[in-house]
Amino acid sequence: MGKLNGAADFEALDACHLQIQQQLCNLADLVDEVSLHGLTPAVQAQARAIERFFSSTSRKHHQEEETQVFPELLASDDADMVAAVQHLSQDHFWIEENWLLLGPQLRALGTGIGWPDEIEFLQQAQVFLDLCNDHIALEESLIYPESKVRQIIATAARDQRLQANASTSTSTNAG
After folding, report:
1. What is the torsion angle, in degrees rounded to the nearest 10, for the CA atoms of residue 3, residue 21, residue 15 and residue 75?
2. Ranges of the chain with pLDDT below 70
3. How many domains does the chain have?
4. Residue 21: its pLDDT value, please?
5. What is the C-alpha separation between 12 and 148, in angstroms, rounded?
6. Contact yes or no for 105/122 (Cβ under 8 A)
7. Per the domain annotation, does 47 fall within a domain?
8. Which CATH number characterizes residue 48's domain?
9. Burial class (CB in 10 A: 0-12, 13-18, 19+), 64
10. How many CB atoms lie within 10 A of CB 21?
11. Cα separation of 136 and 21, whole Å?
């Protein structure tokens, strides 16, 4: 995929952020459940669902941001914006690195095979929660609004060009 092609693309990105935030809440609840009750069937089911989501949907979302949202902002003349986007891109790296440690632990919880070290699991989960929550906050407060404004401006400019071309074509054909 290339650039964003309209409001529907942002609606999809925003909807995915809501799903990510819900799964982060589920992970926080799972951490509490593991701390209080250990491995239960409910913990196993929740761990499987969280692991599936972050191993697929969330990773795809980050790839879409890297290819659809970030490039235009990285080309900006606004040094603060470029720095923020570079920070978010680096976040994607750290989130992935942390996921490579946390994902297998969630799979182990989900299957009940290879129970992870509880303290290590709790620490990795907290790091992942912090990274993702901070990351989303920056995207939602700065990057997405700026990208949406740029998309509106680009769409208006394109529509204006199309209208000008249509007017030129109509007046040429009339003469």
Report:
1. -20
2. 1-8, 169-175
3. 1
4. 95
5. 13
6. no
7. yes
8. 1.20.120.520
9. middle
10. 14
11. 8
